[in-house]
Every structure is written in C-alpha cells, then in structure tokens.
Specification:
The chain is α/β, with parallel strands linked by helices and 192 residues long. The protein has a single domain, classed as 3-Layer(aba) Sandwich (Rossmann fold). Helices cover 23% and strands 33% of the residues. The chain is built from five helices and twelve strands. The protein has helices at 12-21, 48-57, 61-69, 79-84, 183-191, and strands spanning 2-6, 25-29, 40-43, 74-77, 85-88, 99-104, 114-119, 128-133, 137-141, 146-152, 159-166, 169-172. A seven-stranded mixed sheet has the order 2-1-3-4-12-11-10. It has a three-stranded mixed sheet with strand order 5-6-9. The relative contact order is 0.18. Bound molecules: glutamine (GLN).
C-alpha cells in the first residue's frame, strides 16, 4: 500500500514514520503528479492557513479536491481537518470543502495551547490517548458525517466532535502521529 502525506508544512514526517511502521510505503506529496498512484493520503497538522496558501501556490487545490471526491481515502489531523472542512467559523481561508463540517480553529482557547486526554472512540475497544495542540473542534456537522469521538466544553456543557468520518474521509482534531498508538492510521488503511 502506498500512502502519501501532503508535505507542504507541518508534521508530515511523523505521519510517514507511522505508516512505514505499519508496513506501507510512505511518500511525500508536493505536486499534482505525486497524487497519482496513492492508495490513501494524510494531511498533517501544522498551520492551516499556511498549508492552504502553499497548496494554492502549488496548484494542488483542485487536484486534491478531485481525487478526494473520486474516493481517495484521506486522514486529516488538526490543521489537516481544517483544510478538509467546508468552512471555518470566523476565518476566511483556502479549504478543500470536501468534508461537510464547520470547524472552529483554536477552539480550546489560546491559553490552553496543548493538552492530552483519553478519548472514547466509537468502534475502538480502548480509549485513544489524544494529544491536542492549539486544536480545532467541530462546530457543526452535516448529515453524512459520523461522529466517532467528542469532547465536552466545561464552560457550556456542549459536546464538540473531535473525530469524524464521512465515507472515506477521516478527520481528527488531535495528533495520532505523536503517540505510539497506531489505530487511527490502521483505520485509514482499512478504508483504503
Ligand atoms: N491552530 C492550527 C490552525 O488553526 C492547527 C494546529 C495544529 O495543527 N496542531 O491551523
């Protein structure tokens, strides 16, 4: 299996290390040509405005959108989730608009840059130890989107999705590439 990681900015190397550990070929993707022959794609965490700006400059927005709409399995983590989403609450920025959710960037507040939590995930027997770094949460989900994990806002008591699936599109607010747990990447390989 050949798995690409969008290698414009962010922690694509960590993702590629995980997929290689799982026995797949891991390739860095920076051009439309490098999207060919992939069985799955990962869009890493980093800074979503930078990823969006570089993807525009590299002519990747339409090719990425077309491949994903045509069924290429994809995992977006953190900034990757934001880049996949239909829209962003409060900000205007380039997005692929293939995942029917509205995301709220830096949703946990600027003070809480980073934290870790054990998350119950639908379909997984044991919780996932999730690392959140200036993370988004999902503000609104479309009807075709399954929520696989959510967190509760202690302020309002509202639930906010942090792991969703829409067909072959998986997206997490957290960083599964930063722990030893490979189950989220295995899920991507299973939908491929
Ligand atoms: N805060 C970043 C953004 O809005 C995402 C952070 C991350 O990917 N760890 O793009």
């Amino acid at each position: 299996m050949r798995i690409g990681a969008l290698a414009l900015q962010g922690d694509f190397r960590e993702h590629l290390a995980v997929v290689r550990k799982l026995g797949a070929e891991g390739v860095e993707v920076r051009t439309p040509e490098e999207l060919a022959d992939l069985d799955a794609l990962i869009i890493p965490g980093g800074e979503s405005t930078t990823i969006g700006r570089l993807a525009t400059i590299y002519g990747l927005i339409d090719p990425l959108r077309e491949r994903i709409v045509a069924g290429l399995p994809v995992l977006g983590t953190c900034a990757g989730m934001i880049f996949l989403a239909a829209a962003t609450k409060r900000y205007e920025q380039p997005q692929l608009e293939v995942l029917d959710v509205v995301v709220e960037r830096n949703a946990f507040g600027r003070q809480v840059d980073s934290f870790e939590a054990d998350l119950a995930v639908a379909g997984l027997a044991d919780p996932v130890h999730a690392v959140f770094i200036r993370a988004p949460w999902i503000h609104k989900v479309g009807s075709d989107v399954d929520v696989l994990a959510a967190v509760t806002d202690p302020g309002t008591g509202e639930e906010h999705p942090v792991f969703v699936r829409q067909g072959r599109i998986l997206a997490t607010s957290f960083h599964p590439e930063l722990t030893e747990d490979t189950r989220i990447h295995e899920l991507l390989m299973e939908v491929s």
